[in-house]
Amino acid sequence: ENKSCDSVEPVHGGDVAVRSQTCDENWAYHDASVSRRLRLFHFLFEMLQDPSMAHCLSWAPAPPGVFSFSSRNKDQVAALWGQRKGNKRPMTYQKMSRALRNYARSGQIFKVKKKLTYQFRNNPKISRRSSTKLKYSCNNISKYLSLELK
Q1: For site-directed labelling of 127, which of 66, 133, 139, 141 has its Cα 20 to 30 A away?
Q2: Are 147 and 59 in contact (CB under 8 A)?
Q3: What is the CATH number of the domain that holds 48?
């Protein structure tokens, strides 16, 4: 089965939703009250926890916390992220990767020496005050990564 995330459409009224049989409808949902506080690394972690999104973004076998983008679907992940944030202009992987590089400067996510591959820091220190939409807090990320280390 060839899955893709290429059917993302805006919905009138300010919200956006995925219009595809292959992508979860909640990935591009936008709640204007939380868009400013939603962080890319939370969004990526949520996607990584959803097995139905493995064709777009997946955990690497080792070491713990390492994930990679699918070369075929990296732009679709970026589009979902842009719509989830409520951007009016389309998000591209190039723009999203700039945010990932900024995370590297602050130590939250590191670039791994492999194409389209990154690693979460073991102990993220970012506040989760942001959103009821987020399923995973930074503490959950840390716990998940520490379990993977064992």
Answers
A1: 66
A2: no
A3: 1.10.10.10
pTM beyond 0.85: the answer is no
Domain that holds residue 70: 38-81+88-149
86 phi-psi bin (left φ>0, alpha ψ -120 to 50, beta other): left
Contact predicate 88/10, CB 8 Å? no
Looking at residue 89, its pLDDT comes to: 92
Distance CA 120, CA 141 (A): 9
Tell me, yes or no, whether 30 lies in a domain: no
- What is the structure's pLDDT at 62? 78
Integer Cα distance of 98 and 68 in angstroms? 16
In a domain, 32, yes or no: no
Q: Does 115 reside within a domain?
A: yes
